[in-house]
Amino acid sequence: MLNIGIFPASGGLGSSTYTHLLNHVPNDKVTLIARFPEKIPGTYVQNGARVRKASYESDPQELEAAFADIEVLFLISYPSHVRDYRVKRDELGEATAKLIERYAADPAAFEFVNAKVLLTGNKPWTLAETVRCLGEALGKEVRIREVSVEEYARQTQVEGRFGSAAVAESWATAWEAIRAGETAVVTRTLAEILGRTPEDFDQTIKQLLSQQRD
Ligand SMILES: NC(=O)c1ccc[n+]([C@@H]2O[C@H](COP(=O)([O-])OP(=O)(O)OC[C@H]3O[C@@H](n4cnc5c(N)ncnc54)[C@H](OP(=O)(O)O)[C@@H]3O)[C@@H](O)[C@H]2O)c1
């Protein structure tokens, strides 16, 4: 099996991926790279996973040291306003772990070399359906109201989430992409990799809420 690296090995997707992966591959084949290695639970290190320190801003020498002897690298992009297809994040991590495991075990048999793998939910969700689903889960009426980008970005909670109105305005372009149908895409790939139908978005929302209430 090839040596596998995951960077950054923290955050939602990175943690989910290595948690699934370490259940299936020899742990000493896995290197977890993060800017705060202390965030990685000690149990994984005790089981043999290697931990190294690096950030996106590391200089080339530091990155070379962090990635030394790694033959398969799962490089996660910085969170940005990219397309989002309503996939449960833990299922993305599980599917990613399966892809890494398959490639690391037998690169010649891997069918996705130099190919894009698009993992989506089971059906497109309109904003109206999304809001209805959130309202049902909360047990109260939730409404959606269209506002200008400037009005959206000036809201205290939006500015608080993004840190500045300028960043919030940049994120607001995602709504135009949604309007243009860029997120209304469904593929069977996630189901095929997982070997089961992915969890529906409304189910995920209900579970998230019940976990928060517990
Ligand atoms: N298409 C989809 O449906 C979908 C779903 C989920 C995620 N994603 C994409 O996957 C990516 C990760 O998302 P996420 O949900 O895992 O985000 P997240 O939970 O916010 O995690 C962000 C990660 O980035 C790391 N990070 C931030 N700045 C860094 C830096 N300067 N150097 C090194 N590491 C840095 C964080 O590390 P620290 O712990 O050190 O802060 C953390 O591990 C994003 O691009 C997101 O858009 C896509």
Task: Note down, in words, how this protein is organized.
- With 214 residues, this protein is an alpha/beta fold.
- The chain folds into 2 domains: 4-121 and 185-200, no CATH class; 127-179, no CATH class.
- 47% of the residues lie in helices and 8% in strands.
- It contains 10 helices and 4 strands.
- Strands 3-2-1-4 form a 4-stranded parallel β-sheet, with helices on one face.
- Helix 1 (11-21) packs across helix 4 (89-105).
- The mean pLDDT is 92.
- It binds NADP nicotinamide-adenine-dinucleotide phosphate.
- NADP nicotinamide-adenine-dinucleotide phosphate binds at residues 8, 10-14, 34-36, 39, 55-57, 76-80, 82, 84-85, 87, 89, 92.
